[in-house]
Amino acid sequence: MKKILVTGPTGLVGINLIRKLVELNYAEIHILVRKTSNLKYLPIDKLIIHYGDTTDLNLIKENYFENIDEVINIAGIVSLNDRKLLHEVNVKGVQNVFECCIKNKIKKVIHISSISAIYFGNKNKLSNENSSFGFEKYDLPYNHSKRKGEEIALSYVEKGLNVVCINPGFILGPFDVKPSSGALILETLKAGFFYPLNSGTTIVHVEDVVFGIIKALECGKNGERYIISGENVSYYDIFTEILKNANKKRLLIPIPKILGLIAGYSLDFLGKIFNKKFNLNKQAIYSAYLGYHLSNEKSIKEFNIIYKSYKTAIKDAYEWFKKEGYLDA
Q1: How far apart are CA 124 and CA 245, in angstroms?
Q2: How many domains would you assign to the chain?
Q3: Tens digit of pLDDT for each residue in 285-294?
Q4: pTM of the entire predicted model
Q5: Residue 112 dihedral angles phi and psi, to the nearest 5°
Q6: Which end of the chain is more exposed for a tag (fewer CB within 10 A), N or C?
Protein backbone atom coordinates (compact mmCIF):
# COMPACT_ATOMS: atom_id res chain seq x y z
CA MET A 1 0.00 0.00 0.00
CA LYS A 2 1.30 3.44 -0.91
CA LYS A 3 2.05 6.03 1.75
CA ILE A 4 0.60 9.55 1.75
CA LEU A 5 1.67 12.39 4.03
CA VAL A 6 -0.84 15.19 4.67
CA THR A 7 0.15 18.56 6.13
CA GLY A 8 -2.50 20.77 7.71
CA PRO A 9 -4.89 17.86 8.46
CA THR A 10 -6.87 19.51 11.27
CA GLY A 11 -8.72 22.18 9.30
CA LEU A 12 -11.95 21.99 7.30
CA VAL A 13 -10.37 20.41 4.21
CA GLY A 14 -7.88 18.29 6.14
CA ILE A 15 -10.39 16.58 8.43
CA ASN A 16 -12.79 15.76 5.60
CA LEU A 17 -9.96 14.51 3.38
CA ILE A 18 -8.43 12.29 6.06
CA ARG A 19 -11.79 10.77 6.97
CA LYS A 20 -12.52 10.00 3.30
CA LEU A 21 -9.08 8.49 2.64
CA VAL A 22 -9.44 6.25 5.68
CA GLU A 23 -12.98 5.29 4.68
CA LEU A 24 -11.71 4.25 1.24
CA ASN A 25 -8.69 2.45 2.72
CA TYR A 26 -6.89 4.53 0.10
CA ALA A 27 -3.36 4.44 1.49
CA GLU A 28 -1.27 4.37 4.63
CA ILE A 29 -1.94 7.88 5.90
CA HIS A 30 0.69 9.96 7.68
CA ILE A 31 -0.13 13.39 9.08
CA LEU A 32 2.10 16.28 10.15
CA VAL A 33 0.62 18.25 13.05
CA ARG A 34 1.67 20.56 15.84
CA LYS A 35 1.62 19.11 19.36
CA THR A 36 -1.11 21.61 20.23
CA SER A 37 -3.38 20.54 17.35
CA ASN A 38 -6.95 19.40 18.01
CA LEU A 39 -7.22 15.81 16.72
CA LYS A 40 -10.74 15.22 18.04
CA TYR A 41 -12.38 14.62 14.66
CA LEU A 42 -9.60 12.55 13.13
CA PRO A 43 -9.54 8.71 13.20
CA ILE A 44 -6.16 8.78 14.96
CA ASP A 45 -6.07 5.02 15.47
CA LYS A 46 -5.86 4.66 11.66
CA LEU A 47 -3.13 7.29 11.19
CA ILE A 48 0.61 7.62 11.66
CA ILE A 49 1.19 10.91 13.43
CA HIS A 50 4.29 13.06 13.10
CA TYR A 51 4.67 16.14 15.28
CA GLY A 52 6.21 19.08 13.50
CA ASP A 53 5.61 22.45 11.90
CA THR A 54 5.94 23.37 8.22
CA THR A 55 7.43 26.73 9.24
CA ASP A 56 10.28 25.05 11.12
CA LEU A 57 13.52 25.46 9.17
CA ASN A 58 14.72 22.17 10.67
CA LEU A 59 11.83 20.29 9.02
CA ILE A 60 14.12 19.06 6.26
CA LYS A 61 16.37 17.40 8.86
CA GLU A 62 13.51 15.26 10.16
CA ASN A 63 12.52 11.92 8.65
CA TYR A 64 8.79 12.63 8.27
CA PHE A 65 8.98 12.50 4.47
CA GLU A 66 11.16 9.39 4.23
CA ASN A 67 9.60 6.50 2.27
CA ILE A 68 6.51 8.62 1.54
CA ASP A 69 5.06 8.21 -1.97
CA GLU A 70 2.78 11.25 -2.22
CA VAL A 71 2.30 14.47 -0.26
CA ILE A 72 -0.84 16.59 0.07
CA ASN A 73 0.15 20.04 1.29
CA ILE A 74 -2.87 21.71 2.88
CA ALA A 75 -1.02 23.63 5.61
CA GLY A 76 -1.78 27.32 5.37
CA ILE A 77 -3.28 30.23 7.23
CA VAL A 78 -6.03 32.72 6.48
CA SER A 79 -5.47 36.24 7.76
CA LEU A 80 -6.42 39.60 6.35
CA ASN A 81 -3.78 41.72 8.03
CA ASP A 82 -1.00 39.68 9.69
CA ARG A 83 1.54 39.99 6.88
CA LYS A 84 4.38 38.41 8.83
CA LEU A 85 2.40 35.29 9.72
CA LEU A 86 1.03 34.98 6.17
CA HIS A 87 4.55 35.04 4.76
CA GLU A 88 5.83 32.64 7.41
CA VAL A 89 3.15 29.98 6.77
CA ASN A 90 1.91 30.47 3.20
CA VAL A 91 5.29 31.23 1.64
CA LYS A 92 8.17 29.97 3.80
CA GLY A 93 6.14 26.98 4.95
CA VAL A 94 5.50 25.95 1.34
CA GLN A 95 9.20 26.32 0.56
CA ASN A 96 10.11 24.05 3.49
CA VAL A 97 7.62 21.36 2.49
CA PHE A 98 8.78 21.28 -1.12
CA GLU A 99 12.43 21.15 -0.11
CA CYS A 100 11.56 18.05 1.93
CA CYS A 101 9.69 16.62 -1.07
CA ILE A 102 12.57 17.11 -3.50
CA LYS A 103 15.09 15.73 -1.00
CA ASN A 104 13.01 12.59 -0.47
CA LYS A 105 12.07 12.13 -4.14
CA ILE A 106 8.32 12.25 -3.54
CA LYS A 107 6.44 10.86 -6.55
CA LYS A 108 3.61 13.41 -6.57
CA VAL A 109 2.68 16.52 -4.58
CA ILE A 110 -0.78 18.08 -4.43
CA HIS A 111 -0.55 21.68 -3.25
CA ILE A 112 -3.76 23.24 -1.96
CA SER A 113 -3.79 26.87 -3.01
CA SER A 114 -6.88 29.10 -3.30
CA ILE A 115 -9.02 31.03 -5.73
CA SER A 116 -7.41 34.04 -4.03
CA ALA A 117 -4.33 33.26 -6.14
CA ILE A 118 -6.43 33.77 -9.28
CA TYR A 119 -7.96 37.02 -10.53
CA PHE A 120 -11.61 37.49 -9.56
CA GLY A 121 -13.17 37.78 -13.04
CA ASN A 122 -16.68 39.09 -13.70
CA LYS A 123 -20.09 37.91 -14.92
CA ASN A 124 -19.21 38.53 -18.55
CA LYS A 125 -15.73 37.02 -18.43
CA LEU A 126 -15.11 34.24 -15.94
CA SER A 127 -11.55 33.76 -14.70
CA ASN A 128 -9.95 30.37 -15.24
CA GLU A 129 -6.70 28.55 -14.50
CA ASN A 130 -4.86 30.55 -17.18
CA SER A 131 -6.01 33.98 -16.04
CA SER A 132 -3.32 36.41 -14.94
CA PHE A 133 -2.99 37.20 -11.22
CA GLY A 134 -4.09 40.82 -11.58
CA PHE A 135 -3.83 41.69 -7.87
CA GLU A 136 -0.45 43.41 -8.06
CA LYS A 137 -1.94 46.86 -7.45
CA TYR A 138 -4.19 45.75 -4.59
CA ASP A 139 -3.21 45.71 -0.92
CA LEU A 140 -4.44 42.18 -0.27
CA PRO A 141 -1.73 40.35 1.73
CA TYR A 142 -3.58 37.02 1.85
CA ASN A 143 -3.99 36.89 -1.93
CA HIS A 144 -0.33 37.75 -2.45
CA SER A 145 0.85 35.10 0.02
CA LYS A 146 -1.24 32.36 -1.63
CA ARG A 147 -0.03 33.36 -5.09
CA LYS A 148 3.61 33.37 -3.98
CA GLY A 149 3.21 29.98 -2.30
CA GLU A 150 1.67 28.57 -5.47
CA GLU A 151 4.49 29.97 -7.60
CA ILE A 152 7.02 28.31 -5.29
CA ALA A 153 5.16 24.99 -5.53
CA LEU A 154 5.03 25.05 -9.33
CA SER A 155 8.69 26.08 -9.58
CA TYR A 156 9.60 22.60 -8.35
CA VAL A 157 8.24 21.09 -11.57
CA GLU A 158 11.46 22.24 -13.26
CA LYS A 159 13.40 20.57 -10.45
CA GLY A 160 11.80 17.21 -11.21
CA LEU A 161 8.77 17.05 -8.92
CA ASN A 162 5.31 16.09 -10.16
CA VAL A 163 3.21 18.98 -8.79
CA VAL A 164 -0.51 19.68 -9.11
CA CYS A 165 -2.18 22.79 -7.65
CA ILE A 166 -5.76 22.84 -6.42
CA ASN A 167 -7.54 26.20 -6.18
CA PRO A 168 -10.70 25.75 -4.09
CA GLY A 169 -13.44 28.38 -3.90
CA PHE A 170 -15.15 29.52 -0.70
CA ILE A 171 -15.42 26.20 1.12
CA LEU A 172 -18.41 25.24 3.28
CA GLY A 173 -19.38 21.96 4.90
CA PRO A 174 -19.12 19.86 8.07
CA PHE A 175 -16.12 19.65 10.42
CA ASP A 176 -15.27 23.35 10.22
CA VAL A 177 -13.83 23.14 13.70
CA LYS A 178 -12.03 26.47 14.03
CA PRO A 179 -14.29 27.71 12.24
CA SER A 180 -12.76 29.05 9.02
CA SER A 181 -15.00 30.02 6.09
CA GLY A 182 -18.00 28.73 8.01
CA ALA A 183 -17.61 31.76 10.27
CA LEU A 184 -19.64 33.56 7.59
CA ILE A 185 -22.65 31.46 8.61
CA LEU A 186 -22.17 32.09 12.32
CA GLU A 187 -21.63 35.84 11.87
CA THR A 188 -24.64 36.13 9.57
CA LEU A 189 -26.88 34.42 12.11
CA LYS A 190 -25.49 36.56 14.91
CA ALA A 191 -25.64 40.00 13.34
CA GLY A 192 -25.92 39.78 9.57
CA PHE A 193 -28.00 42.71 8.36
CA PHE A 194 -25.78 44.15 5.66
CA TYR A 195 -24.34 42.65 2.50
CA PRO A 196 -22.05 43.98 -0.26
CA LEU A 197 -24.11 45.36 -3.13
CA ASN A 198 -23.51 43.80 -6.58
CA SER A 199 -21.00 41.26 -5.27
CA GLY A 200 -20.69 37.58 -4.48
CA THR A 201 -18.29 34.66 -4.42
CA THR A 202 -17.92 31.12 -5.66
CA ILE A 203 -19.09 28.46 -3.18
CA VAL A 204 -17.88 24.87 -3.04
CA HIS A 205 -18.89 21.98 -0.78
CA VAL A 206 -15.91 20.57 1.13
CA GLU A 207 -16.77 17.07 -0.14
CA ASP A 208 -16.27 18.28 -3.71
CA VAL A 209 -12.87 19.67 -2.72
CA VAL A 210 -11.94 16.30 -1.24
CA PHE A 211 -13.09 14.54 -4.41
CA GLY A 212 -11.01 16.96 -6.47
CA ILE A 213 -7.89 16.32 -4.40
CA ILE A 214 -8.23 12.56 -4.77
CA LYS A 215 -8.76 12.93 -8.53
CA ALA A 216 -5.68 15.17 -8.67
CA LEU A 217 -3.68 12.35 -7.06
CA GLU A 218 -4.98 9.92 -9.65
CA CYS A 219 -5.02 11.92 -12.86
CA GLY A 220 -4.02 15.55 -12.22
CA LYS A 221 -1.49 16.74 -14.80
CA ASN A 222 2.00 17.77 -13.77
CA GLY A 223 2.41 21.55 -13.49
CA GLU A 224 -1.33 22.24 -13.84
CA ARG A 225 -3.77 24.09 -11.59
CA TYR A 226 -7.41 23.17 -11.15
CA ILE A 227 -10.17 25.45 -9.90
CA ILE A 228 -12.37 23.35 -7.62
CA SER A 229 -15.51 25.37 -7.06
CA GLY A 230 -19.22 25.23 -7.69
CA GLU A 231 -21.62 28.08 -8.30
CA ASN A 232 -20.90 31.80 -8.51
CA VAL A 233 -23.44 33.20 -6.04
CA SER A 234 -24.42 36.71 -4.92
CA TYR A 235 -23.97 37.59 -1.27
CA TYR A 236 -27.68 38.38 -1.08
CA ASP A 237 -28.51 34.79 -2.08
CA ILE A 238 -25.90 33.41 0.31
CA PHE A 239 -27.18 35.40 3.29
CA THR A 240 -30.80 34.60 2.42
CA GLU A 241 -30.06 30.88 2.30
CA ILE A 242 -28.22 30.98 5.64
CA LEU A 243 -31.18 32.69 7.32
CA LYS A 244 -33.59 30.25 5.65
CA ASN A 245 -31.78 27.27 7.22
CA ALA A 246 -32.13 28.86 10.64
CA ASN A 247 -35.80 29.80 10.02
CA LYS A 248 -34.93 33.43 10.62
CA LYS A 249 -36.48 36.38 8.84
CA ARG A 250 -34.42 39.53 8.67
CA LEU A 251 -34.22 42.62 6.50
CA LEU A 252 -31.01 42.50 4.47
CA ILE A 253 -29.61 45.89 3.57
CA PRO A 254 -27.33 46.31 0.53
CA ILE A 255 -24.26 48.46 1.17
CA PRO A 256 -22.63 50.27 -1.78
CA LYS A 257 -18.88 49.80 -2.16
CA ILE A 258 -17.96 53.36 -1.15
CA LEU A 259 -19.82 53.06 2.17
CA GLY A 260 -18.29 49.65 2.81
CA LEU A 261 -14.77 50.98 2.27
CA ILE A 262 -15.41 53.96 4.56
CA ALA A 263 -16.45 51.48 7.26
CA GLY A 264 -13.30 49.43 6.62
CA TYR A 265 -10.96 52.41 6.93
CA SER A 266 -12.80 53.53 10.05
CA LEU A 267 -12.38 50.13 11.72
CA ASP A 268 -8.68 50.11 10.84
CA PHE A 269 -8.32 53.56 12.39
CA LEU A 270 -10.17 52.55 15.56
CA GLY A 271 -8.08 49.37 15.75
CA LYS A 272 -4.87 51.41 15.82
CA ILE A 273 -6.21 53.77 18.48
CA PHE A 274 -7.47 51.02 20.79
CA ASN A 275 -4.83 48.44 19.81
CA LYS A 276 -7.53 45.97 18.81
CA LYS A 277 -8.06 43.76 15.75
CA PHE A 278 -11.59 43.67 14.35
CA ASN A 279 -12.99 40.77 12.30
CA LEU A 280 -13.81 43.32 9.61
CA ASN A 281 -11.14 45.63 8.24
CA LYS A 282 -10.22 47.44 5.04
CA GLN A 283 -8.81 44.31 3.35
CA ALA A 284 -11.76 42.12 4.33
CA ILE A 285 -14.33 44.57 3.04
CA TYR A 286 -12.40 45.31 -0.13
CA SER A 287 -12.15 41.56 -0.82
CA ALA A 288 -15.91 41.22 -0.34
CA TYR A 289 -16.56 43.69 -3.14
CA LEU A 290 -14.29 41.96 -5.68
CA GLY A 291 -17.06 39.52 -6.56
CA TYR A 292 -15.35 36.30 -7.66
CA HIS A 293 -16.64 34.80 -10.92
CA LEU A 294 -14.67 31.70 -11.84
CA SER A 295 -14.98 28.85 -14.33
CA ASN A 296 -14.90 25.24 -13.11
CA GLU A 297 -15.04 23.83 -16.64
CA LYS A 298 -11.57 22.26 -16.47
CA SER A 299 -12.23 20.30 -13.26
CA ILE A 300 -15.59 19.10 -14.58
CA LYS A 301 -14.02 17.93 -17.82
CA GLU A 302 -10.86 16.29 -16.43
CA PHE A 303 -12.04 15.16 -12.98
CA ASN A 304 -15.71 14.44 -13.79
CA ILE A 305 -16.85 16.38 -10.74
CA ILE A 306 -20.59 16.79 -10.31
CA TYR A 307 -20.72 19.80 -8.03
CA LYS A 308 -23.18 20.03 -5.16
CA SER A 309 -25.28 23.20 -5.01
CA TYR A 310 -24.30 26.10 -2.76
CA LYS A 311 -27.56 25.47 -0.88
CA THR A 312 -26.39 21.97 0.05
CA ALA A 313 -23.01 23.33 1.17
CA ILE A 314 -24.68 25.90 3.42
CA LYS A 315 -27.19 23.36 4.79
CA ASP A 316 -24.53 20.76 5.63
CA ALA A 317 -22.32 23.35 7.32
CA TYR A 318 -25.25 24.79 9.26
CA GLU A 319 -26.44 21.35 10.42
CA TRP A 320 -22.94 20.44 11.64
CA PHE A 321 -22.58 23.71 13.56
CA LYS A 322 -26.00 23.10 15.10
CA LYS A 323 -25.17 19.52 16.09
CA GLU A 324 -21.85 20.52 17.64
CA GLY A 325 -23.30 23.39 19.67
CA TYR A 326 -21.73 26.30 17.80
CA LEU A 327 -25.11 28.00 17.45
CA ASP A 328 -25.55 28.05 21.22
CA ALA A 329 -22.54 30.31 21.78
Answers
A1: 31
A2: 1
A3: 877 887 889 9
A4: 0.94
A5: -90, 110
A6: C
